[in-house]
Amino acid sequence: MIDPTISASPASVGPAPEGRRLRVAILGASGSVGTQTLDVCRRHADKVRVTALSVLGSTERLVSAAREFGVSAVAVVDETHGKDPILQELPAGCELGVGTDAALELVTRDDVDCVVCAVVGAAGIRGGYAALKAGKRLGYANKESIVVAGDLLMPLVKPGALVPIDSEHSAIFQCLRAERPSELERIWLTCSGGPFFGMNREELSHVTATDALRHPTWRMGAKITIDSATLMNKGLEVLEARRIFDAPLERISVLVHRQSRVHSMVEFSDGSVKAQLGPADMRIPIQYALSYPERWETPCARVDYAALGELTFEPVDEGAFGCLRLAREAGLAGGTIPCVLNAANEVANHAFRKGSCGFLDIERVVERTVDAFTRADVQSLEQLAEVDARARDHARNELRGLL
């Protein structure tokens, strides 16, 4: 379990030294979480200094941010964009690296205290691993990394080194501060229910990617928005919570909370429940990952709870949304099976967004792919990369079989 306290020991990872701004590297700086992280840094320029940025291929956004924040180093992961003309406009003295290794080298720099890993999907595993190995604080918005490689990542986590950025896990992290892990009875993960809440499988068989991308509450990237519609996102969050907070799967429950104001709750052995409430704005958990253990002025409008009217909670229909069930089953199997689940889901999610399969086909492809693999203990990042590649190939074959 991660320790939501910062000690003064040399083995802990704390905030920036007194009188110096926190120096931050952002991996995936052009995506939804990356751009919102930049906004938090912009609002708190007296406390944060952005020193390094990486993007996949959005070089115009990279150059714009590098010039605004005066960063020391940048990386473009997609080598086909490594010579984009716009890169000539990087600020003087800014180092440019190209390729995956260049992005990983950013996290080991001496002028980086904290790494925000905002890379989507399994691609974020190596960045998080490198940050933890380098002794940096890691603000993690990449749940897939914990789900797939938790066996390798979590043993590297020192007190104060990992602060989750997912709104639900940030909420749990905050609720557990100053609490004893032995007194944890249940984690209640909340979800909005997505755009298809209340639909049955017949209705779900007709929805489109355009429908699925209309999330009722959160502003997110396309992949995670589709995952939220299938509830695979919530399934991955269940597995993430299990790993981060060392809680048995049977003690992690999911509730539909349409107002998206209670971001998650923790129940203790005496029946007491602590909840973290706030606006549906990702900048709050992002900011907390940077400010922890302090709190800074809010980056968004406050909630008028008197005007809110009601807070409701309902069970999840796992019969209609089977991806949540599949994630739980993968978590129970453990080992390399969550890697297979995640890889197959990324392939099917992408196919749905491109119009190559139906909404319910995502679940079918994931289930058939997982069933085709035998569990093995997790041993290395190289092993996981090989399992990931084989699972993606199998999922693509399953998709071809649906046509």
From TrEMBL:
Keywords: Isomerase, Isoprene biosynthesis, Magnesium, Manganese, Metal-binding, NADP, Oxidoreductase. It catalyses: 2-C-methyl-D-erythritol 4-phosphate + NADP(+) = 1-deoxy-D-xylulose 5-phosphate + NADPH + H(+). Signal peptide: none annotated. One of its GO terms (biological process) is isopentenyl diphosphate biosynthetic process, methylerythritol 4-phosphate pathway involved in terpenoid biosynthetic process. This is 1-deoxy-D-xylulose 5-phosphate reductoisomerase. It comes from Olsenella uli (strain ATCC 49627 / DSM 7084 / CCUG 31166 / CIP 109912 / JCM 12494 / LMG 11480 / NCIMB 702895 / VPI D76D-27C). HAMAP family: DXP_reductoisom (MF_00183). The keyword Isomerase applies. It holds the Pfam family DXP_redisom_C. Belongs to the DXR family. InterPro entries: DXP_reductoisomerase, DXP_reductoisomerase_C, DXP_reductoisomerase_N, DXPR_C, DXPR_C_sf, NAD(P)-bd_dom_sf. Mn(2+) binds at D166, E168, E237. 1-deoxy-D-xylulose 5-phosphate binds at K143, S167, E168, S192, H215, S228, N233, K234, E237. Pathway: Isoprenoid biosynthesis; isopentenyl diphosphate biosynthesis via DXP pathway; isopentenyl diphosphate from 1-deoxy-D-xylulose 5-phosphate: step 1/6.
